[in-house]
Design goal:
alpha+beta, 20% helix, Immunoglobulin-like, 185 residues, four-stranded antiparallel β-sheet
């Protein structure tokens, strides 16, 4: 079962009302804020809609960062995407998630050496035995030197869908084995 699209299913009406009532002024592109702890509740077909109160709490629930801060990522989910703006814009900006049902991430990579993110390989695994590889197609060209590391920001999508039976997913950077996990309720 694929995730429930923003504009259909039981979440659809709630999302449309929420989009009309809530401002989406948060940029939220920095996956290096406070480490999200505890489980997240993904939006999936056939499941109950998660009840996050606002953009910040919903996005934080889906954000993880490795202990060494090399890898940070926010798992895309309608629970926080619905707060970003009108439904058409949100669906256009997150096409892999909404149109194809892919498991997608907003990623921040902090590397000591300059690297080309489009040449990096990432692996997504889940508790059902799935193991899928992907590379970013593009990355934001505004590199930043943060401390002693180069910071790269990009989107990453996998031909994988989170279902209501999925209990966890793991994102791993192949180059150095850095991994981050999401546990689902």
């Amino acid at each position: 079962m694929a995730r429930t699209p923003l504009t259909s299913g039981p979440l659809g009406a709630l999302a449309i009302v929420a989009l009309g009532l809530l401002a989406a002024g948060c940029s939220g592109d920095d996956a290096t804020g406070p480490q999200a702890s505890g489980p997240a509740t993904p939006t999936v077909a056939g499941g109950a809609a998660p009840g996050y109160a606002d953009y910040v709490s919903a996005r934080e629930a889906f954000t993880r960062r490795s202990d060494d801060e090399v890898l940070g990522a926010t798992l895309e989910d309608a629970a926080w995407l619905k707060f970003e703006g009108d439904a058409d814009t949100v669906e256009r900006n997150h096409r892999a998630y909404f149109e194809y049902g892919y498991t997608s991430f907003k990623v921040i990579l902090r590397a000591k050496e300059y690297t080309r993110p489009t040449e990096e390989v990432f692996i997504l695994q889940d508790d059902g035995g799935a193991r899928v590889e992907s590379k970013p197609l593009t990355f934001q060209g505004n590199l930043q030197l943060v401390g002693d590391r180069w910071q790269f920001t990009f989107d990453l999508s996998f031909k994988h869908s989170i279902t209501r039976d999925t209990r966890w997913v793991r994102l791993t950077r192949v180059k150095d084995g850095t991994a981050i996990d999401w546990q689902f309720e």
